[in-house]
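Reopening this ticket.

The earlier resolution said the output was attached, but the attachment link was broken on my side. Pasting everything inline this time so it's all in one place.
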Amino acid sequence: MRFRFHKMHGLGNDFAVIDARDEPVELDRRAITALADRRSGIGFDQLILLERDAGADARMSIYNADGGEAEACGNAARCVALLLGGEISLATGDRVIRLGPADGAIRVEMGEPKFGWDEIPLAHALDTASLPVAWEELENPFAVNVGNPHLVFFVDDPATVDLGRIGPEIEKDPLFPNRINVGVASVTGPQSLRLLVWERGAGLTRACGTGACAAAVAAIERKLVEAPVTVVLPGGPLEIDWRPGSSIVMTGPASHVFTGEIDWDEAL
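Inline output:
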């Protein structure tokens, strides 16, 4: 079976987007991992599948490069908004988010963050604002669910943390029954952060939209910064605006690289 895909990225976090609203596409873990291979497949951090949804313009399903499914992806959402155009609603995980153009960029209303230990989720009750846990020099992280689960550590300089080594260990710790995304952030100004993210199922990526949202929320809650917050990732900056009790609003770029076709059977 041949199918069409769009190669897109948000600040270097790259995707293969398949619009299956009119022609359904069946996916399995083996196919996703084969297509994610950057030498023999399409190559991507996540595969995005668009399907019909009764309560939104489309439903976005997100599959990491390891074949596992994720609940949310801010960079992918911006890419879908660019692809579909205009003001749209998008079902993802258990949320319906709203997106639209904003001065040459894409605005995403990500929904409200969740802070309960069972909403992250954690394996048992702990203070999510300052978890009494540590992995080497990383300690007392902030846990928050922004559509998917994140752990945020505040450090002097994210570049000094070997996140590629310690990230997988934290991601798969038994404390996190659904695994977790791991961010290391530093405060660089009254409204700015620098951030690196180990993404659950994808590894180190050049940008993580939900990670930027999580870091901004954590820093605002700890009174380290004030909104709106510019979060600088290796791929570039995202603006995150959030006040307690409201939806997180993320604004940033999205890029369409090319459109292609691939034979599903030949790729496996």
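Reporter confirms the inline version is readable. The chain has two domains: 2-109+253-267, 134-246. The mean pLDDT is 95.
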